[in-house]
Amino acid sequence: MYNKKYDLIVVGSGAGGFPAAIAAARRGLEVLLVERNAQIGGLLVSGLPILAFLDRSGNPVVKGIGQEIIDRLQALNGTKGHIPSPLLNSVTHVSAPWMSIILFEMCEQEENLDVLLYAELKEVKVDNGKMRGISVFCRGEEMVFEANLVIDATGDACVAYKAGAKYEKGDADGKGLQPPTITFELGNVDYEKLFDYLSEHPEGYKLPETFPGIEQTLDYFRSNICFTMMGFSDIVNEARKTGELTIPRNMIDICRQVNGNTFVNVTRSIDTDVTDFESIIKAEFVCHKQVKELVPFMQKYIPGFENAQLVSMIPFIGVRESRRIVGKKQLTLDNIKNLELPEDTVAIAGYNVDIHSPDSADMTMLTVKHGVGIPYGCLVPEYVEGLLMSGRTISVDQSAFAMTRVMSTCLAVGQAAGIAMAIAHKHGVLPSDIDVSELRAELKKDNALIALD
Ligand SMILES: Cc1cc2nc3c(=O)[nH]c(=O)nc-3n(C[C@H](O)[C@H](O)[C@H](O)COP(=O)(O)OP(=O)(O)OC[C@H]3O[C@@H](n4cnc5c(N)ncnc54)[C@H](O)[C@@H]3O)c2cc1C
Q1: Structural domain includes residue 164
Q2: Claim to verify: residue 205 and residue 302 sit in the same structural domain
Q3: Which residues contact 82 (CB under 8 A, 6 or more apart)?
Q4: Residue 148 covered by a domain
């Protein structure tokens, strides 16, 4: 069933990889999508809501394949669509199992696409600086695949790293990475009781000073069937002082899911470098212990959670930050502050700059008035040809990363990467040499957004 040679290999099937594989297969390329898990979708199937399909001004910034997924989910009642949010610009809550079913279905509908699950990248083949293929371990067997075009959507830039591409990680010393987290879901939460408590205790949803200019309202929580809330700093900080809570986080971060359960995003393993296997394994242990501490804490102190039940937990730690590849261009915090939408924009980022402190309990959120453009050069790594980056590992500085890492942006970047590869294949040129205006025209044809309406 699988070929030995493909036009394009996409490694990693998350928000960065999935749309890349679909977009290229729809343009006739023979594509292999490689994924080490048994599920397609990476963090798309974690139950995390997708942030910032809309920017802070309410402009849609991501459509194309990202929107197609949401439309398919909506038809199955697997999402309530894009809900504007005073905190997170917009939130699209998704049902993880329906998302998983849809992603499998979409792959199956592409006749040029082969999906290889249970397959961890082993080696990359590079000749004279050009990608020539990869090998993987799949169910204990080593397999070799040839391709002159490869997209690295592993989230950790595994392909680019092995191919010798230049990368950055964390701050100037390679430290200070945002911490990874194990998220989990609670059932049997009494939201009316929670709202009643908050109406008496508005300090419960007051955001810290590190969220300048952002306010949450009780009315917002009450009027949206799915909502996201960060709060209870008062209760959390008191418990941290007495030692009853040891998790390095100064808030409880929850969202009400499509199924009525509460998704909890609070655990943190600080001082972790996920590219170091000992460090990430230690983080798994740390966060599992934190879940055990947090569930009874919430039952005891957060009104409405007294009878909450632990329903599910992500089966692997969620990685916020690891390698960022150095590309032909780099998106910087200055570009964001200047709200730039350059001529070579191939995807729009519409989120805020959201940083989970690498070494304390804090979190900061700097709002960004409207979407900013990601230039094509951010997808093109230095030193290795035939390779494009997609998802969270594109070429951005550490602060810009805190904006571009969300899944809506990764979906938009993924579609651009897939179409760029189709153009390179069509003209027999390297992806670094394609005409970006042709890419932009093709993106528009596919209903992807490259400008604000
Ligand atoms: C705790 C947490 C909370 C977050 N909250 C939100 C949120 O609320 N909303 C939002 O929009 N974003 C959120 N994000 C950010 C967002 O989820 C990620 O940045 C985004 O999913 C990255 O997409 P990606 O495709 O680059 O990586 P991933 O989704 O991680 O996908 C990478 C895929 O590659 C596969 N892979 C990796 N290495 C290999 C290999 N060596 N061989 C084969 N396959 C491999 C992985 O299994 C995975 O399927 C959060 C992230 C975390 C960790």
Answers
A1: yes
A2: yes
A3: 53, 54, 60, 70, 90, 91, 92
A4: yes
Backbone angles phi, psi at 301, to 5 degrees: -110, -20
Atom of ligand 1 nearest to the CA of 410: 23
Q: In 283-322, where do the E strands start and end?
A: 309-313
Q: How many angstroms is it from 412 CA to the middle of ligand 1?
A: 14
Residues 40 and 115 in one domain: yes
Whole domain around residue 68: which residue ranges? Answer: 8-173+322-445
Q: Name which of 7, 403, 49, 84 is nearest 259 in CA terms.
A: 49
Q: Do residues 427 and 29 touch, judged by C-beta distance below 8 A? A: no
pLDDT at 100: 98
* Distance in Å, CA 43 to ligand 1 centroid: 4
Element (H, E) at 141: strand 141-146
Ligand 1: nearest atom to the Cα of 51 = 11
pLDDT digits (tens, 9 = 90+) for 317-356: 999 999 999 999 999 999 999 999 999 999 999 999 999 9
Give the integer Cα–Cα distance in Å for 132 and 422: 17
In a domain, 3, yes or no: no
Mean pLDDT of 439-449: 98
Q: Which of 278, 313, 348 is the last residue of a domain?
A: 313
Q: Whose CA is nearest to atom 16 of ligand 1?
A: 406
Q: How far away, in angstroms, is 235 Cα from ligand 1 center?
A: 31
User: Is residue 48 classed as helix, strand or coil in its secondary structure?
Assistant: coil
**Which of 9, 43, 398 for a ligand 1 pocket mutation test, highest count of atoms within 8 Å of Cβ?**
43
Shared domain for 215 and 82, answered yes or no, is: no
Q: Rounded to an integer, what is the distance from CA 41 to the centroid of its chain?
A: 10
Nearest to 15 by CA among 347, 441, 399: 347
207 located within any domain: yes
User: Is 431 found in the same domain as 411?
Assistant: yes
Distance CA 98, CA 327 (A): 35
359-391 pLDDT, tens digit each: 999 999 999 999 999 999 999 999 999 999 999
Task: Give the residue, out of 82, 291, 407, with the most ligand 1 atoms within 8 A of its beta carbon, to mutate for a pocket test.
Answer: 407
- The residues lining ligand 1, judged by C-beta closer than 6 Å to any ligand atom, are 11-17, 34-37, 42-43, 48-51, 120-121, 153-156, 158, 180-181, 183, 265, 318-320, 391-392, 405-408, 410
Residue nearest to atom 38 of ligand 1 (CA): 154
> Considering all CA atoms of the chain, what is the largest pairwise distance in Å, rounded to the nearest integer?
67
If residue 353 lies in a helix (H) or strand (E), which one and from where to where?
Answer: strand 353-356
Query: What length does the chain have?
Result: 453
Same domain as 106, residue 67: yes
One domain, residues 165 and 91: yes
Domain count, the chain: 2
